[in-house]
Structures are given as structure tokens and as C-alpha cells.
């Protein structure tokens, strides 16, 4: 008989028999523990669970996940599967994936409850699952696996007319399957099944299995049900690739978890070439930004030919950047030359580098003539998108109508109703944006930056960034709940101060 090594509860699961309690099991490799933390946080945020069984192997630091279970007042057990692994003689010792997935075969032995719901570590429970858990089931219940290759049933000897369920989300009647464990282990050791325990379960329980709606196991292969309760990230994982379907679901729960138990680091900064008066108001508006409790904000600026502004910053908040090129502006407009754009582009890319090397989760670019509403940062975080800008309106020429810092097509080309639409509070997908923008580090890790594209006319570094982002399958979003104030001209700054400054602008 296998030896149980457990942590978490004060009683061995082997001898604990429950009634109608909700019991969950998850199997994971040690390097996935950080993702299991988010899985558990989402599960317990949406459901009352009596006990969770965590199956892995070796000694693990459970201090962080312990916080989650204490927070939700939920019991859990960690079971060390090292001894069980010794029974799996039919797999290559180097095949760690096979080992961890085959640990599921031992669940009826480990968990002495009547019923249990197994959840893969790459699932996120986003709704109530009690109706699923209360399903009457003879052996197992789950969703059809629409992602298996043609001919797979034939390959494993399963008739085509029999259901084939995805084992990543499975409800088990343990009382009726407990006697199958030895047979399952024997099958695993004597036959090479392509999908390991999933094949074994379907072969041995297909006659008595029950199909449930795909909302309980929505994945890339099934499609994401409108009433999704459980998101299952089969294939590419959202913590490795931000472009996977339903990535926003993962990001939402990752963010909420960090806000509750962890820390989100944000770097706010910009290249700065500015008058002292405007810069002082700018810093004041950044000082007044509200943030969630578990968010830390650092600031960093490249003072471009503006060394006098350093007195308004801490020593670790800036570096001087000195160049010889001229930059001119007057009451009509700002006069940009290609050399000016080159410098700004270089400095913005340096800020990207600083974001990545500093371990920041986000970079928030805020041009130095923008005055922000206190709720700007919180609102951009709540949008839960990799790239979100806050709107502001500018008269680029003195005699023009104001336009937003976003566009639909090419550069400052708009659909017929966009301008009017963006005047209403909301969150809108756009073709390009910049200047006041919150960007998740994953965007930069994918290679997105502000450098010119050699085969695209250069109308500014924000255009290059936007094109690169969309080419990497990132969407650009514009929030319009709390428009920033753009002090583009000296006269606008003077009017701003005369009318009461920052406080008056947002009163």
C-alpha cells in the first residue's frame, strides 16, 4: 500500500470521510505552485468549498497558498506523491508531464470522500459550480474533449460512439470508482496511452460517464461559453503568452490576487522637456494619483535638456539627457523635427528597458504636460487590458477643433462616429494611441517598442508603438472616464493656474 505524506490539516485524508461537502482536488508540478495560488483564489472567491486536496511531490513552500486558505477559512491538504510515483513503472522517469498527470489515478485512494471535483492547475473558476458538483454521477462527469485528434478513439480501442471526456475538469463518484485504482495503475504501466490517465479513465468509465455543458470546461477546443463557469487554458498558457483566448480572465484574477495578497509594481515616467511651471503642476497631479493598497508606484524621468527641473524630483527619479538639437513651440503649435522624434523615441525605449530590468509589472507613460485625474491609475488598472490609454483632447493648431490622443486608422483618421462616441465615458477599442498610457510588461517582453518601422512612414513614435502592438496581436484600448487636461500652450497653462489649477480642473 502506498504511503501518504500530507500537510495542511490536522487529520489524514485517508481516514476522513465526508458527507455532502464540496471537495476539490488539484495536481500540479512544483514550478506551477504560483499559478495554483491564482486558481485557488478564483475558486474560493466564487464558491464555498469545504476542503481542497493539493497533490504534488517533494517539500514545497506553502506559505503563500496558506494565506489564501486562511483568508477564505477553507481547509486544505497537501499530499506528497513521491511514494505514489514509484508505482508508475511504465513511464520514462524523465517524462515529468506523464508523472504528474498520472497522479490523478490515485485520487480515489487518497480522498476518502464520496465525491470530488478534480480541476487542472491551468483552470480558473469564474462562477458558481455547485450545480455541477451536485450532478448525479455514476462514475465520472465532464465535458466532451473536442480537441482530440481524428482517429484517437480508434487508437486506444474506444468505440467511436462512446463519449470521450476531457480529464482536466472531472467530477468523480469516489465510492463507485475506488476499486478501479489498481486496474488503472496496471493499465498505465503496461500500455502506452497517448493521453495517459485521460485515456485510461475514458476506456474504463465510458459506459457510465455523464456529459455536462462545456461552460464547466470552456477551452480553446470547445469554444468559450457565454455562461462560462470554468475557463481551462489548454495548450498555450496565459502566464507565458498574453495572446491566448480569454487571457483577460487570467489577468483579472491575477490582478485581484496580487491586490489581495501580493504587490503590483508600476513605473510612471516620461522624457521631459518642459517649462518649470507646467512641470510642477504635472508632478502635483502624479502625487495625487490614487492607487490600490497593494500597488507600489515608482517614478523615473529623463530630463531632456531640462536640468533645472531636477530640484522637483528625488535623486533616484531622474537622469539628465543632453542633446544639441533645438525644439521650438509657440502659441500656434509645437514644431517637431525628425531629430526631436529620434531623441524621444530613444528615451521611451530606455524607459521600457528600465521597466523590464526593474521587475515592474506595468509602465505608465505620462507626457509631462498632462494633468491627471486622481482616479486615472485605478481606472486604467480596472480596465484589465495589456494596453490602455486615458483620453485627453488637444487643439494641435490654435484654430482647429480639439482631437483625442487616439485614432481608428493610420494616424488621426477616424470613423464617422468615433469623436462623438469618445466624448462619452467608456472603454473603447482603438487603432492607435499614446501619451497617457498604461502598458503591461508582457507587451515589451513580446518585442513591442517605440522604434520606427522601416517600411512605414514615420508619423511619430506612438504610431510605431501602436502598429507593433497590433502586429503582435495586442488590442489598444482608450478609457474616457477621467480625461486628462493637456497644457499644450503657455496660455493654457496660465488659464489653468488662474482658474484654480489642478483642484479646479477636476472639481
Written account of the structure:
With 507 residues, the chain is α/β, with parallel strands linked by helices. It has 2 domains: 5-216, Spore Coat Polysaccharide Biosynthesis Protein SpsA, Chain A, CATH 3.90.550.10; 263-505, Spore Coat Polysaccharide Biosynthesis Protein SpsA, Chain A. The model is unreliable at 9-19 (pLDDT under 50).
Radius of gyration: 28 Å
The structural class is alpha/beta
Shape: elongated
> Which percent bin holds the helix content?
25-40%
Count of helical regions? 19
CATH superfamily of the largest domain: Spore Coat Polysaccharide Biosynthesis Protein SpsA, Chain A
**Roughly what is the average pLDDT, rounded to an integer?**
90
At CATH level 2, the architecture of the largest domain is Alpha-Beta Complex
Terminal Cα span: 72 Å
How much strand content do the residues show?
15-25%
Total beta strand runs: 24
Oligomer: single chain
How would you characterize the largest beta sheet? Answer: 10 strands, mixed
